[in-house]
Amino acid sequence: MNRFSLAVSGAIARVTEAALGPYQTAVIRIGFGVTWLLFLLRELPHRHELYGPDGPWSWDLAQQLVASNGSFTVLMWSDGRVWFEIVYALAVLSGALLTLGWRTRTMSVLFMVGVLSLQNRSVFMGDGGDNVLHLMSVYLVFTRCAQVWSLDSRRAARERAARERGERAYDRTGPALWGVLGFVLVGVTLAGRMQGDWLIPALLWMVWAVQGLWWVVGRRARTGELRIMLDVVANVVHNGALLVIMAEACLIYATAGWYKIQGSRWQDGTAVYYPLHLEYFSPWPGLADLLSASGTMVMLVTYGTVLVQVAFPFTLFNRRVKNVLLAVMMTEHAVIAVVLGLPFFSLAMIAADAVFLPTGFLRRLGGRVARARDRLPRRGGRAPVPGQRAAESPESTHVGFGA
Predict the structure, then answer these.
(1) Distance CA 25, CA 242 (A)
(2) Is 188 helix (H, G, I), strand (E, B) or coil?
(3) Which of 30, 67, 239, 245 is the most buried (most CB within 10 A)?
(4) Do 329 and 353 meet the contact criterion of CB atoms below 8 Å apart?
């Protein structure tokens, strides 16, 4: 009984005392931010046909669908071209800033709003990768995904160094951003624009209120009981969201694998063979012909895909096997991006897979990137910012309007 009590208390302490997986969540943040940003930039010339006023799915049809299913999209607030351009630009900007980790808590919310707004405007334009991005954009709001590899962590390190020198560090950008977004929330709520399902509007108000409370507590009681309680709640929410992300990734592969087993096309190999000969999925016809010319290769790809997807959730109990299958799945998605011309689907799936990457591997990768960055000539011969190295460790948990 004593061992059981110790195990339970240790597990509770582990979940409440720290936000787990700081490197994994940072990779997820960067991965999905880059995926969304590159997609928006690639489709910039076609944005009006995909999500805007020139699309086949008209604004009236979208309004009827949104009214029936209660989905959230700010593009239904107006059918004007100017409003669409503003929303699209904000989606691009939030994707870029989320990738960099600037004011990450706020940017994660704006990133979610951008993803939901564009995808719910034209629901028939998406694929499997868009569905993953749709879900992960919501989950990211609940994570402390900028503990490492972000501008927020560097800012927190500088503020910590300033306090150690006895200086007072003031954050004027965060409160100003919070005030502007609060003004916008009040305006759209009073104007009756927060229609449809209550979940997303409630989440927006909750995050805004919590951020204000967090800043007030951080200014008045950096080591008080209320501050400790807020940290515990934030850690529990983060760890819960991280668990949901892992479960979501496992569910995607498990359902896909078991669905393939039931289909005859995956049993005889036609599910792999025929897409290689479709013009839509053949950006490199010569490469597709080379792969499909070998029956052995088609068989290995077909049965290997099914085997890996079905087996992956069970390999989480064995770290070495899990790492091998994880490398195989990421390689497979990279091949799909090139051979079938589905780069953003592959990027989204690779970003989701990154939640299972080993911490040691990610730290070594981050160290190599940092060393490569340090070798670059600095403008004006400036020395590295004090505390910059500390910002690369998960202890650099930032407060206030960051993450």
Answers:
(1) 8
(2) helix
(3) 245
(4) yes
Residue 104 in contact with residue 29, Cβ under 8 Å? yes
Question: How far apart, in whole angstroms, are the C-alpha atoms of residue 27 and residue 366?
Answer: 10
User: How far lies 286's CA from each of 132, 172, 186, 291, 335, in Å?
Assistant: 30, 57, 57, 9, 14
Cβ within 8 Å of residue 232, ≥6 positions away: 16, 17
Q: What is the pLDDT of residue 399?
A: 40
**HSE, side-chain direction, 13 A CA sphere, residue 70:** 6
Report how far residue 109's alpha carbon sits from residue 89's, in angstroms, rounded to the nearest whole number.
15
**Cα 400 from Cα 403, distance rounded (Å):** 7
Q: What digits encode the pLDDT tens for the residues 7-22? A: 777 778 888 888 999 9
Tokens representing 235 are: 């850690």
In angstroms, the CA 67 to CA 288 distance is: 43
103, 401 Cβ separation under 8 angstroms: yes
Sign of CA dihedral 152, 350, 356, 373: negative
- How far apart CA 367 and CA 388 sit, in angstroms, is 13
Tokens at residue 50, please? 């995909």
CB 375 within 8 A of CB 265: no
Which range (270-274, 317-321, 328-332, 345-349) has the least confidence?
A: 270-274
Q: Tokens in use for 347? A: 């990027």
Give me 221's structure tokens: 């009681």
DSSP letters spanning 233-289? HHHHHHHHHHHHHHHHHHHHHHHHHHHHHH-HHHHHSHHHHTGGG-GGG-SSHHHHH
Asked whether the beta carbons of 398 and 158 are under 8 A apart, the reply is no
For residues 386 and 391, what is the distance between their CA atoms, to the nearest angstrom? 10
Helix axes 199-220, 104-121, angle to 10 degrees: 170
Enumerate the H helices of 263-358 as residue ranges. Answer: 264-268, 270-273, 285-292, 295-315, 319-339, 343-353
Dihedral (CA of 198, 199, 201, 203) sign:
positive
